[in-house]
Design brief:
Blueprint (H helix, E strand, L loop, with lengths): L1 H23 L34 E6 L6 H17 L3 E6 L8 H6 L6 E5 L3 H7 L6 H5 L9 H4 L3 E2 L2 E2 L2 E7 L1 E5 H6 L11 H11 L16 H13 L5 E4 L2 E4 L4 H16 L11 H9 L5 E4 L2 H9 L8 E5 L10 E11 L5 H11 L6 H16 L9 E2 L6 H11 L9 H6 L1 E3 L6 H17 L5 H15 L7
Parallel strand pairs: 1-2, 12-14
Antiparallel strand pairs: 3-12, 4-5, 6-12, 6-13, 7-10, 7-11, 8-9
Helix pairs in contact: 2-14, 9-10, 9-17, 11-12, 17-18
Keywords: Signal
Pfam family, one: SBP_bac_1
Protein name: ABC transporter substrate-binding protein
Length: about 475
């Protein structure tokens, strides 16, 4: 019995082996459901797998979500999420309340807590790329249908060594918002749009009333924004933050131009008495002072103070003028620090998450649906007696077909703020430095606070000392 059993087992094994070889037939699928039994045998090992459909995969992404005070922006984002899920029902979109902070991004990345898609600003492109905290989205961007219609003034800020690390949203050359109503009430002549440092100084001095708590201008005096504000005057005086030669980065902001720019701040404080007595103002403080008519001028990306002045300060569009940064002297350049908002994809996200995040970021770009949503938002603001304030620079080229559609849309609604053509013709953006921009801003804030708090400061000595600090602590550590 044992021999018979063993023989039977051997026969069955051989039979199964032969059947398997004959059934597979070198890859022929003749015995598979739906196959053609008359098809010729093939020696192929099988066709490559079909490309996976991203719309059929369950994917979760976390996105940047506007802060609670930006009610209208949240409404726009909610509408976008709804419409995105109609196209991609397989995607879970999670709202993140984290706002980008250069002092927190490393911790967030290390703990794997950064959103899949997060916001950042113009100075951070090279920093995030070199730290490995921004995904290389070159392939996604190069395959994007509208890549050639993106505004290069903005988009190029996040192209580092030929690779793309971010998606432009909106931007601006820094300018000056002027409360025209405050000038009119005092009978002060409106300065020309092609103005100079002297014009700004005289206007600020004339409108200032320290006893009443009114300042002519509120340069930011705390946080990195103080250094950012001052850099506009460094640029218009002909200076720069740093030079790069052969990979060697050298601090240059302690130049003659830097001295002129800091002496101008000294004049605003000690000669004109034109800045707030409590000058330690951050961005929110200075912009709020403008919206509340406690200062006549503020230096910022124009849409921020205009929006707050109209929608929180109760001003009318006729009350607010937007100027370029004043030129150092007549005929000079009106350079403003080029800034903006960008979206960055988390490099720790999976390939699928990165692709979905890119699709979400650009979902409304160059889209009629996006225009419809924007128009509904403008109309909703109108119903609430609020204005829509566009950015000076948009993600798309202004002279593109889509740009013409947006211009036409804005022209249809009287609650859309329109920038003056005089300013748009003069305002000029200059990019921030390539390396350690926020570190430089922070260091310069210390100098500004010294000048604002003490009369008679040795400005050249302060700038030299700060340049040495920035050079040794930051620039000398950069590998060529």
């Amino acid at each position: 019995m044992r021999k018979f059993s063993m023989m039977m087992a051997l026969v069955m094994s051989l039979t199964l082996l032969l059947a398997a070889c004959s059934g597979n037939n070198g890859g022929n699928n003749a015995n598979k459901p739906g196959s053609d039994p008359s098809a010729a045998p093939s020696n192929d090992v099988g066709a490559p797998p079909a490309e996976e459909d991203i719309t059929q995969k369950k994917v979760s992404i976390s996105i940047y979500y506007p802060t609670p005070d930006r009610v209208e922006d949240r409404a726009l984002e909610d509408d976008k999420i709804k419409r995105f899920n109609e196209v991609f029902p397989n995607v879970e979109v999670i709202k993140s309340d984290w706002q980008y902070n250069p002092n927190e991004i490393g911790i967030k990345m290390g703990a794997n807590e950064a959103p899949t898609l997060f916001n950042t600003y113009a100075s951070e492109g090279k920093f995030l790329a070199e730290k490995g905290w921004a995904a290389d989205i070159t392939e996604l961007f190069n395959n994007y249908e509208f890549k050639d219609q993106m505004n290069p003034v903005l988009q190029d800020l996040f192209t580092v060594d030929g690779k793309v690390y971010g998606i432009a949203q909106r931007g601006y050359p820094t300018g000056v918002a002027v409360n025209k109503k405050m000038l009119d009430e005092k009978g002060i002549a409106i300065p020309p749009f092609d103005w100079t440092w002297e014009d700004m100084l005289n206007t600020a001095k004339a409108v200032s009333d320290p006893d009443a708590g009114i300042s002519g201008i509120a340069p930011m005096g705390k946080g990195n924004e103080a250094g950012w504000n001052w850099t506009n005057f460094l640029f218009t005086a002909g200076g720069d933050i740093q030079s790069v030669d052969g990979g060697k980065v050298t601090a240059t902001f302690n130049s003659d131009a830097g001295v002129k720019a800091m002496e101008y701040y000294n004049q605003l404080k000690w000669e004109a008495n034109a800045i707030p007595l409590d000058w330690a103002l951050g961005w929110g403080d200075a912009v709020s002072a403008f919206a509340q008519s406690r200062t006549a001028m503020v230096i910022a990306g124009p849409d921020g103070p205009v929006d707050q002045g109209l929608n929180q300060g109760g001003m009318s569009p006729d009350d607010i003028l937007v100027y370029p940064i004043p030129a150092y002297e007549k005929g000079g350049k009106h350079y403003g620090v080029l800034g903006g908002d960008f979206l960055v994809i988390n490099p720790n996200a999976t390939k699928d998450e990165q692709e979905i995040a890119f699709r979400y970021a650009t979902f409304d770009y160059f889209s009629d649906k996006g225009l419809e949503s924007l128009e509904q938002n403008i109309q909703a603001r109108k119903a609430d007696n609020k204005f829509y304030v566009p950015a000076v620079l948009q993600y798309f080229k202004s002279d593109s077909e889509y740009g013409a559609k947006v211009t036409e849309l804005f022209g249809k609604h009287d609650n859309v703020y329109q920038y003056g053509q005089e300013t748009l013709g003069l305002i000029d953006g200059k990019p921030e430095s390539q390396f350690n921009t926020q570190d430089y801003y922070g260091a310069m804030t210390n100098v500004i606070q010294e000048v604002f708090s003490k009369e008679g400061v040795d400005i050249k000595a302060q700038l030299d000392m700060t340049a040495k600090l920035v050079q040794e602590k930051f620039y000398d550590t950069i590998q060529p």
